[in-house]
Design a protein that fits this description.
mainly beta; 60s Ribosomal Protein L30, Chain: A; 8-stranded antiparallel beta sheet; two-stranded antiparallel ribbon; 1 helix; 6% helix; 50% strand; globular; disordered N terminus
Length: 193
């Protein structure tokens, strides 16, 4: 059973009913959970010149994967590395989700990489979205940095990572989702048979 709240900013605004997973926590111990199960397991190997984001997305398309965890990168180098990192939004301090693009041009070494592949609606069509988080550094004047890996990050040498398909879940979109204006909504999951 879903729980809803009603919120409204002004009398002119439409009343929006929000599900519990969309709201801020009501106490420090609150959490939301779905139970999923493992599907197929893969080791993905990318070599010099492969775009980490595009190759991972194509892998998901080729293997019919809607949901997966990306984990345990056990080797890899990047050059360049393009990524998003959270930065203060000086025009709206309430915007905790402001991301700015950064690029490291020197070769770096993957220290850690994890994330998920999940569906994202783009132009009315579902596509696999690799949300890859990583830490890199340790080479040619590159400090230890991390963030949300972006298209344009190229492998230098070899990158190998485990990918485990996740079954038994589907995506929940926000109650106020507007596909014509929201290309990357914050989503959650529901259990399915």
């Amino acid at each position: 059973m879903s729980e809803f709240i009603i919120s409204s900013c002004s009398l002119e605004d439409t009343i929006v009913m929000k599900e519990r997973w969309e709201r801020n926590a009501s106490n420090p111990m609150e959490y939301h959970v779905v139970e999923a199960r493992r599907g197929r397991e893969f080791i993905l190997r990318l070599t010099t010149g492969a775009d980490v984001y595009l190759a991972t997305q194509q892998f998901a398309k080729d293997h019919g994967i809607r949901f997966a965890k990306i984990h345990a990168a056990f080797m890899g180098g990047l050059q360049p590395t393009r990524f998003l990192m959270w930065a203060p939004d000086t025009s709206d301090p309430e915007n905790w989700h402001n991301e700015s693009t950064a690029t490291i041009h020197n070769q770096s070494m993957i220290l850690s990489m994890s994330g998920v592949i999940h569906p994202r609606i783009m132009r009315g069509e579902e596509e696999p979205f690799p949300a890859i988080h990583f830490a890199t550094g340790g080479a040619w004047d590159v400090p230890t940095m991390g963030g949300h890996l972006e298209e344009g990050t190229l492998v230098k040498g070899v990158l190998e990572v485990f990918i485990t398909e996740i079954l038994g879940i589907d995506v929940l979109l926000p109650s106020d989702y507007a596909p014509e204006s929201d290309v990357a909504p914050e989503s959650w999951y529901k259990e399915v048979e």
